[in-house]
Design a protein that fits this description.
The structure holds two protein chains of two kinds. By secondary structure, chain A is α/β, with parallel strands linked by helices. Chain A has twelve helices and 14 strands. Chain A has a seven-stranded mixed beta sheet with strand order 3-2-4-5-7-6-12, sandwiched between helices. Chain B folds into two domains: 299 residues, Rossmann fold, CATH 3.40.50; 31 residues, no CATH class. Chain B contains 13 helices and seven strands. The chains are: A alpha/beta, B alpha/beta. Chains A and B meet through helix 11 and helix 12 of A and helix 13 of B. The structure holds thiamine diphosphate.
């Protein structure tokens, strides 16, 4: 099997394009996904290829088109919904929480909602508090939906395919700051990446840095810095937040005996808190230090560039937290 | 003082300036002093927005959404408001603050988001606000300010204030449930509120024709039981006159109204947008011929209120004012990093105090700049 070098956005696009070719019940809708080619160019060329029946430009009404897509899914289509960013899904929250997530269960299993909601997520640069949310924490809380957050083009490609083929609502958390990242992607239209399987982005024996999406790259940077200080960090890229790959997390922690969880968004009650709980419950005796956390500071994101850098997890904060877990600070 | 009824409707287009730029003789004659004050503000706003887009290109400003081509709405509205009234703007009405006396340096400090900024570097540019002039910040997520304006007006009514609240939105925003909610409550509770939609024909790349099948935007008011007025938004006299009428009605206790100002966004949606990808130069030029500033200037010349030397001097004076204000506002250093914990709550909770101490233990350079 060969590979091709694709940017993150091209990998997502290739996955959507190939799945739309493979299954004509798959269609795409959202604001500016067609004529404008997508606010972040992820859907470039799809309108030209599939026409306006399968690539639908909508009015600015997220609750509207989320509901439209759920209705279409209930009668047999497989919609891919693009939000301009996950922030704007807030106005469609009821459709996702109370409808997409629950229709199968509430209908006694008669109905299904095979639908993909996707958008960039998390901090961008200087877009203020209302545009910088890490929304995965809100959604991963909900039974009935799956949440994935890839960090590499290959995973973006393989997981988007899995998402489109899945019979459940799947939420794909992308990142504006990753869209231009290049990587090798398998040249195989049937390459998929299963949900609930983390990847070990870097092997190490002294401490486990556990993360997903953009902050995986911050962890890799921090691991490089820690290596210079004689500390060998392992970096776990969860990729999938629900289902969660508990095994890989626990295997890593049992080896290193220390963990720091790194993510965007606030730490209070978020996905990181869930992971910390599983580590303490299932690997308590293996731990040599309390589980560390690096996340947004517990404040709305400021606009000012210097302030923003203090609020977002950065390499120095990850290094600091790792050293604290190693009692090395 | 009774004003004759204005020919306002939800499908027509209310204009005061005729094609030859004279004032429609059937309408009340505008006050020369007001015309000149509105002209000064429109010109200042035109110069300011042009300059801000340049600063963004130079990397000195992070983002900007300009209102170029739509100045008549912000300025016409600003002059129709009274001191106690409240403004709930969308992206293109920030400058109402300036008309109502907010200092230019403080306004620009909000664009730079530095330590001179009363918002403490928290908000994006083009989201300016100032409680001192009764103007709140708009929400980046389209729509929420409009029902908030209605709610503020309901509170004013309840307290017996003589003030009104005005809520702004774009044509795209009318697709959001929040605008429906605003009109629903405005009709049901008859508060002293005016909802103004700036129909600038585009919602980023989506033309109004692809946003809704409604004949006009103003006509939507009918279904909610409130009057809708469709107004030439490139005619500052029409905007001012229609809004003054709507505000007075509201102040008299006759309830809310919905005003559609038909205008055009001459520039990009924001500095992150390239409009050449979705609209033609001919279309832009056809609207440039209806430029609200040029039309007002044409009228002023015809009325003998403006001559070239005076205009050149005014332009020079305003340019100098803007340059001086930019220099002053840009000088502020970033806000101290410890400030990120302030104002999250009314009081500083223990957990934020702890996070603050932790942050201050890191060397200041770790987070790139920002003193204590
Ligand atoms: C809920 C939500 N969806 C999408 C966006 C992205 N967005 C920002 S401005 C805008 C267009 C707004 O158009 P309009 O209301 O016509 O106002 P204009 O910018 O033209 O003045 C869109 C879609 C957003 N900010 N909020």
């Amino acid at each position: 099997m060969g590979t091709r070098s694709l940017r993150f956005r091209e990998a997502l696009r290739a996955a959507m394009l190939e799945e739309m070719e493979r299954d004509d019940s798959v269609f795409l809708l959202g604001e500016e996904v067609g004529h404008y080619q997508g606010a972040y160019k992820v859907t470039e060329g799809l309108l030209e290829k599939f026409g306006p029946k399968r690539v639908i430009d909508t009015p600015i009404a997220e609750s509207g088109f989320a509901g439209i897509a759920i209705g279409a899914a209930m009668v047999g289509l497989r919609p891919i919904v693009e939000f301009m960013t996950w922030n704007f899904s807030a106005v469609a929250f009821d459709q996702i929480l109370n409808n997409a997530a629950k229709l199968r269960q509430m209908s006694g299993g008669q109905l299904q909602v095979p639908i993909v909601f996707r958008a960039p997520n998390g901090s961008a640069r200087q877009v203020g508090s209302q545009h910088s949310h890490a929304m995965e924490h809100f959604y991963a809380h909900i039974p009935g939906i799956k949440c994935i957050a890839p960090a590499t083009p290959a995973d973006a490609y393989g997981m988007m395919k899995t998402a489109i083929r899945d019979e459940n609502p799947v939420l794909v958390f992308e990142s504006e700051t990753l869209y231009s990242l290049k990587g090798d992607v398998p040249d195989d239209p049937d390459f998929t990446v299963p949900f609930g399987v983390a990847s070990v982005a870097r092997e190490g024996k002294d401490i486990s840095l556990i993360s997903w999406s953009r902050p995986v790259h911050v962890c890799l940077d921090a691991a490089a810095e820690l290596a210079r200080q004689g500390i060998d960090a392992e970096v776990i890229d969860l990729r999938s937040l629900r289902p969660l790959d508990e095994e890989t997390i626990l295997r890593s922690v049992r080896k290193t005996h220390r963990a720091v969880i790194v993510h965007e968004g606030w730490s209070y009650g978020g996905v990181g808190a869930e992971i910390a709980d599983r580590i303490q419950r299932f690997a308590f005796d293996d731990l040599d230090a309390p589980v560390g956390r690096v996340s947004f500071l517990d404040v709305p994101m400021p606009y000012n560039a210097a302030l923003e850098q203090h609020v977002i997890p950065n390499t120095p904060r990850v290094v600091e937290a790792a050293r604290a877990a190693l009692y090395a600070r | 003082m009774t004003t004759p009824p204005l020919p306002l409707s939800d499908t027509g287009l209310f204009r005061v300036l005729r094609d030859d730029l004279s004032v429609d003789p059937a309408l009340p004659a505008p006050d020369a002093g007001l015309l000149l004050r509105m002209h000064r503000e429109m010109l200042r706003l035109r110069l300011l927005e042009t300059r801000m887009v340049v600063l963004q290109r130079q990397g000195r400003v992070g983002f900007y959404g300009s209102c170029t081509g739509q100045e008549a709405v912000a300025i016409g509205a600003g002059f129709a408001l009274q001191g106690g009234d409240w403004v709930f703007p969308a992206l293109r009405e920030s400058a109402i603050m300036l008309v109502r006396g907010f200092p230019l340096v403080g306004y620009l400090a909000q664009v730079f988001g530095n330590s001179l900024d009363v918002l403490k570097g928290r908000q994006m540019p083009s989201h300016m606000s100032g409680k001192q002039v009764h103007q709140v910040s708009w929400s980046s997520c389209i729509g929420p300010q409009v029902p908030q304006a209605v709610g503020a007006a309901m509170a004013m009514k309840q307290r017996g204030d003589r003030a009104v609240a005005v809520g702004f939105c774009g044509d795209g925003a009318t697709s959001q449930p929040d605008v429906h909610n605003a009109l629903l409550f405005a009709g049901r509770f008859r508060p002293p509120c005016v909802v103004v939609c700036q129909n600038n024909h585009w919602s980023i790349s989506v033309p109004t024709s692809k946003q809704t099948a409604s004949e006009t935007i103003a006509i939507k008011a009918r279904a909610y039981g409130i009057p809708g007025y469709r107004v030439d938004g490139n005619d500052v006299l029409a905007v001012h006159g229609a809004l003054q009428h709507a505000f007075e009605r509201a102040r008299r206790g006759e309830g809310a109204s919905f005003v559609e100002c038909v205008t055009y966004r001459i520039g990009a949606h924001s500095t992150s947008d390239d409009p050449t990808r979705y609209r033609s130069q001919e279309e832009v030029e056809s609207w440039q011929r209806k430029d609200p500033l040029v039309r007002l200037q044409g009228h002023l010349r015809g009325a003998g209120l403006l001559e070239e030397r005076g205009l050149a001097a005014l332009q020079e004076e305003l340019t100098a004012e803007i340059e001086a204000a930019i220099l002053e506002a840009e000088q502020g250093p970033p806000p101290a990093r410890a400030t990120v914990f302030d104002d999250v709550y009314a009081e500083l909770p223990w957990h934020l105090r702890e996070q603050r101490e932790e942050l201050l233990r890191l060397p200041p350079a770790a987070g790139h700049g920002g003193g204590h």
